[in-house]
Write a structure and sequence with these properties.
heterodimer, A: 339 residues, alpha+beta, Cyclophilin, 7-stranded antiparallel β-sheet, 7-stranded mixed beta barrel, B: 251 residues, Gyrase A, domain 2, 2 domains, 8-stranded mixed β-sheet, 4-stranded antiparallel β-sheet, 21% helix, 28% strand
Chain lengths: 339, 251
């Protein structure tokens, strides 16, 4: 055995990476992790390139390690225990062969389990990501074996501050395909409306509820089907907004009032059911102010990685730790913060 | 607030529309229009052929070309200006179809349970069942755009009399089903509920996720011609090819 065994897992958990490009013209959307930032954070913690991870919608999972491994926990914080010992979220940990990880969700967003060397399932159409809407791959099931790639780095016990991005908030938007079809009054009302992330939602899209009149455009039932993208906010026939997710259709006939800017999209798609969401149109200049391409974002995240200081109260078996010198393999002193 | 120009209502096509931070749409029509579809295909092909710096992916919808880019490396204004220049450089509605297209001839059975709505469709068009089959198979249809499911092509245009509304009661159709509505036909690349009318069945599957070389058979601009076969002949065909014959189209 060369990796992990999924002992138990809830419905809807999948292997995800940054998705696949190049197939929009042929009807296949990018897919990939709902929270791309969580994949990049895991890469920073594991000191490696972005890899495929297990994406957990809010469902529990029990994973058995069939070999020693490094484990990074990112995305929406969940309760994680390794053979019963609590593990810090947004951190990377060493796991011994035969140990068992149990994860249980506390809120409603996506958690990510990433591993040194990454999950090494077959690449299909340039990605390991399951795309359930397209019929590509499938959800993980109890009893699945997942191979891991070669782990060429060795660093563990690092942590990263993921910030407050798991409770909704105000999202910056820019115009999209049909913004010009909405009245100025509705554009203003849209920005003044408090939305709530509805329980209905999946990787294709998430429904947003609000009090008040629906949002509609003139003649929206006869719109020509047009390119649709993750982050677009579309109005269904009833004028109810849906935030499109990574597995959205590539084209659609519902009008899109705006598009969430890429840097806010992880927070948008991580908002748990019941979270408050608001939208604010910004200028392109304002959206660009903090925008980073994936590689520059990853470089910035690598600079945020810090040593993980353990709370002795969380350590059940102090004897397992080398307390005298404070030095263990792969954890040299005097390198704080990490380069 | 959004750019004031985004609030003044859409201008007449052709027009450029930004999509979020990292997309640009070049729209040639606001309703289904063969020349606009051809313009979109030709515009995308021209961008691809020029290999624009910073453009990470291109696509087409029914009447638009779509460009996406990495805004961390490529400024929107420069890309928009370059697209505007290309747009002004010729009459895209007169552009020929791009090179490298293929024609798919797909065996289709129009009998019995394979065509549950063929009689209704023929009545709506105002012709006999046999005439409806003949019209559907007469000329190759163009893959105007792909969407809804990977590899699923919207084929058109059928003659004006085929402007049949979608049904409000949805029926489940299997992969390979031929459905029609609104002057278009689709060979379903997945199975699912639809308001379109099933008029034939094929064994052709447009999405082959396990085929590493060509997981999606049809590209926008390709042509599809249906060839009527008996139920017995259809049964002898197996997916994903389903007896398809593919030829390069000589321009």
């Amino acid at each position: 055995m060369t990796g992990l065994t999924v002992a138990r897992i809830g419905p809807g958990a999948t292997v995800q990476d940054l998705g696949r490009g190049g197939y929009i013209a042929q009807g296949l959307s990018r897919g990939g992790a709902a929270d791309r930032l969580a994949i990049l954070e895991a890469a920073a913690l594991l000191d490696q390139d972005p890899t495929a991870a297990i994406e957990l919608p809010p469902v529990p999972a029990t994973i058995r390690f069939d070999r020693p491994a490094r484990l990074a926990l990112t995305g929406t914080p969940m309760t994680a225990r390794l053979d019963g010992d609590p593990l810090t979220w947004h951190a990377v940990h060493a796991v011994a062969q035969g140990q068992t990880l149990s994860v249980s969700p506390a809120g409603g967003g996506y958690g990510y389990l990433s591993f040194g060397g990454g999950i090494d399932t077959a690449i299909r159409l340039g990605s390991r990501a399951a795309h359930l809407a397209a019929g590509l791959g499938r959800a993980l099931d109890s009893g699945d074996d997942l191979p891991l790639g070669d782990d060429t780095a060795g660093r563990t016990d690092r942590v990263l501050d993921a910030g407050a991005r798991f409770a909704g908030g105000t999202l910056r938007i820019l115009p999209s395909a049909h913004t010009a079809l909405f009245s100025a009054k509705d554009i203003a009302r849209f920005q003044d409306t408090a939305f709530v992330r509805a329980p209905q939602g999946n990787r294709q899209g998430v429904r947003l509820d609000h009090d008040g009149a629906p949002f509609a455009t003139d003649g929206q039932l006869s719109l020509l089907s047009e390119i649709a993208r993750p982050g677009d906010i579309q109005m269904t026939g009833e004028g109810r907004p849906y935030l499109l997710g990574p597995e959205c259709q590539t084209t659609g006939g519902y009008p899109r009032i705006g598009a969430v800017v890429p840097m806010d999209l992880p927070r948008a798609l991580q908002a748990p059911p019941g979270a408050a969401l608001r939208f604010r149109f910004v200028t392109r200049e304002e959206a660009m102010r903090d925008h980073l391409s994936d590689d520059r974002l990853l470089a910035a995240l690598r600079g945020k990685v810090r040593r993980l200081t353990r709370d002795p109260r969380d350590i059940r078996d102090l004897g397992r730790y080398q307390l005298i010198s404070g030095v263990t393999a792969g954890r040299p002193e005097g390198q704080e913060p990490d380069p | 607030m959004p750019d004031p120009s985004a609030l003044s209502g859409p201008s007449a096509p052709p027009r450029l529309t930004p999509l979020g931070l990292d997309g640009l749409l070049v729209t040639f029509a606001d309703s289904l229009d063969e020349a606009a579809n051809r313009a979109a295909l030709a515009f995308r092909a021209a961008v691809d052929a020029e290999g624009w710096d910073g453009v990470t992916e291109t696509a087409t919808s029914l009447a638009s070309a779509y460009l996406t880019f990495d805004p961390g490396r490529t400024a929107y204004d420069g890309l928009r200006d370059r697209a505007a220049d290309l747009l002004d450089s010729r009459d895209w509605r007169d552009a020929p179809l791009p090179a490298g297209r293929r024609r798919f001839t797909i065996p289709a059975c129009f009998d019995g349970d394979h065509a549950p709505r063929l009689d209704d469709v023929a009545a709506a068009v105002g012709i006999s069942r046999d005439a409806a089959i003949a019209q559907l198979c007469a000329d190759p249809l163009r893959a105007l755009a792909l969407g809804y499911a990977p590899g699923q092509a919207y084929l058109g245009d059928l003659p004006p009399a085929w402007d049949i509304a979608r049904r409000t009661d949805l029926t489940r159709v299997p992969t390979g089903a031929v459905v029609v509505a609104v002057r278009q036909a689709i060979v379903f690349a997945t199975s699912g509920p639809t308001g379109w009318n099933q008029v034939a069945m094929t064994r052709f599957h447009g999405f082959r996720p396990d085929d590493p070389d060509r997981p999606i058979a049809i590209a926008p601009g390709d042509e599809i011609r249906l060839r009527p076969v008996s139920a017995a002949d259809l049964d002898a065909l197996s997916p994903p090819d389903g007896g398809v014959e593919i030829v390069e189209i000589a321009e």
